Every structure is written in C-alpha cells, then in structure tokens.
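Notes to self after the Tuesday call (sharing in case useful).
The group wants a holo model before anyone commits to mutagenesis around the pocket. I volunteered. Ligand is nicotinamide-adenine-dinucleotide. Logging inputs and output together so the record is complete.
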Amino acid sequence: MHRTVLVSGGAGFIGSAVIRELVDLSWVGVVNVDKLTYAGNLESLSSMASDSRYTFVHADICDAATMRDVFQTYHPDVVMHLAAESHVDRSIDGPAAFIETNIVGTYTLLEAARVYWQNLKESDPEKAKRFRFHHVSTDEVYGDLHGGEDLFTETTPYAPSSPYSASKASSDHLVRAWQRTYGLPTLITNCSNNYGPYHFPEKLVPLMILNARAGKSLPVYGNGQQVRDWLYVEDHARALIKVATEGEVGETYNIGGHNEVTNLEVVERVCELLEELAPDKPDGVKHYRDLITFVADRPGHDLRYAIDASKIERELGWVPRETFDTGLRKTVQWYLDNGDWVERVTSGAYRDWVEKHYGGQGVGGANHG
Ligand code: NAD
Ligand code: TYD
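Result:
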C-alpha cells in the first residue's frame, strides 16, 4: 500500500539520510518540508531531484497556515519531524532561533497534525488509525553522566544543560502532552551523536577532517576527555524508519551506537585515518596530529553521554551495522571524495560563524577540503 511520509528538516544531515533511505522503499512517497537554513542543503538530495515520488516544499515549520496547507495538500500517513536548530555552540551564542524553531515550530507542527488527524478520523478512519507523528530528539535532553558505567534509558529524568538541549527537551514534553491530552499517535526517539557523510562542517568530526586537510589547527575543547556515544548516520536513519513504521504509539526509544569515545580520541582517530588515506599533507604539516590544539572549554559542557539501546534492539530488532572504526573510515573517505559538496555548503554565513567562534583561538576561516 502506498504511504506518504512527510519529513521536516529533510535537507539537513540526518533528514537527508532518512530520505535517501525512504525512497529505496517502493511503497513510500516523500514530502520534504524544509526552510533551508544555513544547515539545509538540497545538494544532499541531488539524487532525488528527478524521482517522481519525492516532493520538496520550501517552508518554515513555524508558519501555521502553511503547515495546515501542507497537511491538506499531501495527506501524509506518517510525519517524521527532524527540523531543528541543532548546534550546541550556536545555541550558546544565540538561543532565540532554538526557542523559535525547536519549541514554537514543534508546537505549530503538532497543532497542524492534530487538526488534520482529527478531520481524518471522520473522513478516513482507517488512515487516521495508521497515522503517526514521530518526533526525532536527542540524548542531550537527559543532561550528562558522571559515572563511567551509567547509561541513559528511556526513563532517565530530563536535565538538559544547554539552550539546544533545553529546547529539545521542551519539544519532547509538548509531543508527550499532545499524545496524552489529544490522543495524537506520537512516538519519540532520543539518539546519541551522529556522524557520517553530508554532515555540516561545524560539528566535531567533519570540522576536524576538513581543518586537518587544510593544515589548520584542530580545536579540542577543554581537556578533550568528554565522552560521546557515536552512531553512523545511516544506522540512525534505519532506526528512525523502523520506529516510524513499526514502533508502538506513545512509546519512546533510545538509539545509540555502543561506541563511547572521548573527543580527543575521535580527533586522534581522524588523524590516523588521514595519515593512511590522505598521506599528501599540506605544506608544513609533518603529522596531522600535530595540529591538535586545546582551546577554551564550552560553557556548561556535558561530560559524558551513553545510550542503553536495548529497548529498540529487543522490541524492533534494530542493531547498528557500523562500528566506530568502519563508520569513521567511510566518513573520512567521503569527505576526501566530496570536496565539491563541502565547497558549496560552506557559504559566507558559515565562514562568518567559524571566524566568530574560533577566530581568537587560531583557527582560520572555512576550509574547502
Ligand atoms: P541539521 O542542522 O543538519 O538539519 C536541520 C534541518 O532543519 C536543516 O535542513 C534546516 O534547514 C531545517 N530547519 C531548521 N529550522 C527550520 C524551520 N524553522 N522550518 C523548517 N526547516 C527548518 O540537523 P541534524 O543533525 O540533521 O538533526 C536532525 C534532528 O535530529 C534534529 O531534530 C536534532 O535535534 C536531532 N538529533 C541530531 C543528532 C546529531 O548528532 N546530529 C543526534 C540526535 C538527534
Ligand atoms: P558537536 O559535534 O558540536 O556535538 P554535541 O555538542 O551535540 O555533542 O561536539 C561533539 C563534542 O566535541 C562535544 O563534546 C564538543 C566537542 N567539540 C570540540 O572539542 N571541538 C570542536 O571544535 C567542536 C565543534 C566540538
């Protein structure tokens, strides 16, 4: 049976991976609703351009009238809501956009979905029964872990630390309230740090690859001993599709890669892979790792994130395919092979951000691979 999936934020890093995965399913049509902020790039979906099952709608999820129109026009069976402001450092510099998109935008989309679903119950009760609203969130809502063995479970209390994670926590609360109060059939996933192709080069992994290739310093915040649980983006995309199509309404699923690595180790592994895959170093660079530079710590920096993903593994049979070693190798190779994509996404706005954020600490402007 044909199903229409409305993906918000489909031009972003994870959303584009979800769409590339969805169009492989013959029974799915995809509507991508994206505002195309600095982080949204249709270049990441160029393979979709001529696919008749794919439609792009250039819109802001905070625009209530347009969101109502989108539901009325496309009659989705499933919503996968990924649109968000997603970078912690930017949320520290300017939280307003995070409040607007992550909280007000989620509220606006929930309301449009609720009105649509309530009408559907009258006009097409079977379709209304199948309807799902899947909200894509982060493990950062749980705050951080200080013990070496603790893991975030689906019942860990919320304790967000940054404006980003607080805005995502707020949006999770709204989604639960819309389920409990109005009965909207929602699902929530909370995932750990992703990495992989098409990742905007302000985040740790792509920034390090591109800076190293340009002979620029590799800025490690604080002592680099913070731990993240890294998941390859395609593993996340497969998990999201499983939850959206097979998950139980009202449930939350944690998603993680069982790959806990300190930030310093991530940067060192990137350097090792570059030694192997790109031995022709920039002038003046003897070893890529010599570029590692410890810089001022991030305010409120979370110490450790680690996910207990046993619920999604047990109940939905999802397991990650990539280890950190295999996924990171693919990622480094992808950035080495896709200088054109990097060139096109690193606009003037991106260069301004890098200059503002790292300017005083010796990291130059954008790197073009
Ligand atoms: P991203 O920043 O790469 O992409 C976000 C997308 O949303 C962009 O295409 C952007 O144009 C779009 N967008 C932003 N504001 C919008 C608005 N007002 N209206 C419509 N579109 C808008 O983010 P990502 O890394 O792909 O993250 C996607 C989702 O997954 C987010 O909700 C994020 O919180 C969550 N998440 C991310 C990670 C991670 O490691 N990146 C981990 C767990 C959860
Ligand atoms: P990031 O990719 O911004 O993801 P998040 O903050 O959502 O975890 O950062 C990952 C980790 O890397 C985080 O602990 C901050 C650290 N980091 C650096 O040490 N240097 C950098 O230049 C960046 C961007 C991040």
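Two things stood out.
The two ends are 44 Å apart (CA to CA).
The CA atoms of residues 221 and 297 lie 4 Å apart.
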